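WARN retry 2 of 3 for item q-0093 after timeout on previous attempt; input resubmitted unchanged.
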Amino acid sequence: MTSQTSSVPVPIMVTRSTLPPLEEYLGYIRQIWDTHCLTNNGPLVRELEQRLASYLASPHIWFVTNCTAALQIAIKALNLQGEIITTPFSYVATTSAVLWESCTPVFVDIRLGDLTIDPNLIEAAITPRTRAILATHVYGFPCDVAAISDIARRHNLKVIYDAAHTFGCRLDGRALATFGDVSCLSFHATKIFHTVEGGAIVINDDASLAERIRLTRAFGHHRDDHRHLGINGKNSEFHAAMGLCNLVHLDANLARHRRQHDNYSQLLSGTSVRIPRPESVNLEYNYAYFPVLLPTESAVERSLAALAALNIYPRRYFYPSLNRISYISGHPCPVSESAAEKVLCLPMSDLVTPELQEIIIGTLVAHARAPA
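OK item q-0093 returned
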């Protein structure tokens, strides 16, 4: 391996949006032009929801504007008021949704191995005001869903999963996005499956909750029957068209990510750079991200500077630990804080060749070894 080379001709970002063949997308766009149906639960939105329901083997899935809106709608539809136990190691939208809905986030630290919420710490954080647990399947690594379900059942709590990273993941043969009372998916352009902008809400069993969520994302009414408070969380036919195209190519995208993941892992074997791993067994993983933990924060900063000089841009994802954001009040979470200081997600896209992976890993290893 080598860490020395001239810069690459185009920026290599941590992700690069996949696009289907243009003619495939234009085929759907022509349908939109023919029908003049652009939004308001159009035929392509309904078709995408049906295909997603089949893929996830879930009876209730609603296509929405984004994952943040999905989380907000879930909190509102579950009538949550009070405290929500959550993770400090996630994208800020997870906590923002809690605050936006006038609930109080209560942070519980994470497990060192897979960086998901530590179920052994949850019960100590429960108070008479606790109403739910909102946990993130970090990088598609499953939370301990059995332990969380048991805690929630014993304390009469709802469970919401931020499942933004999970599309294509299956646990014990079941789509990871179907656990909990509600799971929220992201179909943002950076995700392994995307609709440009978008997300989805998955409800596995509760038909009445599913209907409430369906209405909540559409102003809370059906025609002239105004049933309860709602917002505009609908998505458009154009976004659904992109999803219908990308779903066809998902398997090829997953396979490429796995090849790159395996090559990164091999190149890092025997080095001081640690690779977080899922703790769950019987996991069919999507390999959407390749996170690493460097020995120190200064090694992260040196690596970022050296790679940027080569036109390569990994990302500190997630950073900072959410309990340390100035406008959020949180207790110390030392495992999350340490992970946030040391984590980098490495580039994964169609532009990332094996040769480029050698350059990236060579640079990381060289700066991981260097003195602080």
